[in-house]
Specification:
The protein is α+β, with helices and mostly antiparallel strands. It has two helices and five strands; from the N terminus they run βαββαββ. Strands 2-3-1-4-5 form a five-stranded antiparallel β-sheet.
């Protein structure tokens, strides 16, 4: 089964009550969907050390997408895209100490299973499922 290389782009946005955070989350989701066909948003909880040294709880949303780039070949394009994203986020969320945008290569493998079923009409084929495995490159 051949693997296709992609570059995962992850944007970590704090989940705070100020409406600007929901707005930037929506805007970034639209951007990733427009540029790469879609994105996923997940909520996460953790901790971070502030600039003052205090350990604080952290509730965040992580937007991610798999872009159709090859890490070695398209790295300059990916870096430029991330710089533009950082500039947009920095302007919108100026009071944030840091916003993390992570990028790394991953590999996808798709498995389509087709089974003949005489009772299911003229084509007789049913797609039982599409299995998408993302294997993080090391």
């Amino acid at each position: 089964m051949p693997l296709s290389e992609k570059v995962r782009v992850e944007i970590f946005v704090p989940d705070l009550p100020d409406p600007i955070y929901n707005r930037i989350l929506e805007e970034l989701g639209d951007e990733l969907s427009y540029a790469f066909g879609g994105c996923t948003v997940t909520q996460a909880f953790g901790k971070y050390r502030s600039a003052s040294g205090a350990i604080l709880p952290d509730k965040i949303n992580v937007l991610f997408t798999d872009a159709p780039f090859e890490w070695e070949k398209d790295r300059r394009i990916v870096e430029q895209y991330v710089l533009e994203l950082q500039n947009v986020v920095r302007r919108a969320l100026g009071k944030e100490e840091a916003i993390l945008i992570a990028v790394y290569p991953i590999f996808h493998s798709q498995l389509l299973e087709l089974i003949r079923r005489d009772a299911l009409g003229p084509s007789g084929l049913v797609i039982l499922g599409v299995l998408l495995l993302a294997v993080q490159a090391y």
